[in-house]
Amino acid sequence: MIKTIVGFIAGIALVAVIAVTSAQSLMFNITPSPYGVEETAARIQANIQSPEMAAHGWKLSGLRDPSRAVASAGSNVLPVLLVEACSTNYSGPLLKANANRIFSILMPCTITVFKNDDGKTYIGTMNSGLMGKLFGISDIMDQVAADQEAFLTFDPDKPAPPLIKIRPGGGGAGGTDVGGC
């Protein structure tokens, strides 16, 4: 009997350890970029503004540089840029239902571009498809995940676009202010 109880408790502990250690790799996607931080962010911005993504309602809503804020506070960190975009095609249906408004915490869609100690640039995204499945909104979040994948598809034959330094909350590259989403 004691062996069964100890085995059961050990099994629960093992499952908990596995869940904690694998949660990050399940919730977030990290993709290496062949470009530097600014060029990667600029290419993502250009993809968001492509006619295909505009047809899905996507607009840029901001570019944040948290590494600059940390530097201004007296610390040095490697570069980090946050590219923010939102699609009213996807946010609209979520915001209409009382039960779904909490998911506004996921808006705007934020993609992080950062440099690690190895000198390489990486792109981080939330695993939108998994988030959708976990919270019962997979019909919308699966579409967001597919669009995010398109944001990260770069054409190496195209020259680097300029980085658009849009302030968060501006509603998209010089367009109408839609409150950041």
CATH class of the domain at 28-151, please?
A: Alpha Beta
Widest sheet, order of strands: 1-5-4-3-2
The radius of gyration is 19 Å
Largest sheet: 5 strands, antiparallel
Query: How would you name the CATH homologous superfamily of the domain at 28-151?
Result: TT1751-like domain
| Extended strand count | 5
CATH overall fold name of the domain at 28-151: TATA-Binding Protein
Q: Could you say which overall geometry the principal axes of the C-alpha atoms support?
A: globular
Strand content: 15-25%
| Low-confidence sequence ranges | 170-179
| Backbone structural class | alpha+beta
Task: Kindly summarize this structure in a few lines.
Helix content is 45%, strand content 19%. It is an alpha+beta fold and 181 residues long.
Q: Could you characterize the architecture of this molecule?
A:
The protein has a domain at 28-151: TATA-Binding Protein (2-Layer Sandwich). The longest helix has 26 residues, at 2-27. β4 (109-115) and β5 (121-126) form a beta hairpin. With 181 residues, it is an alpha+beta fold. α6 runs antiparallel to α7. It contains 7 helices and 5 strands; from the N terminus they run αβααβαβαββαα. The model is unreliable at 170-179 (pLDDT under 50). Strands 1-5-4-3-2 form a 5-stranded antiparallel sheet.
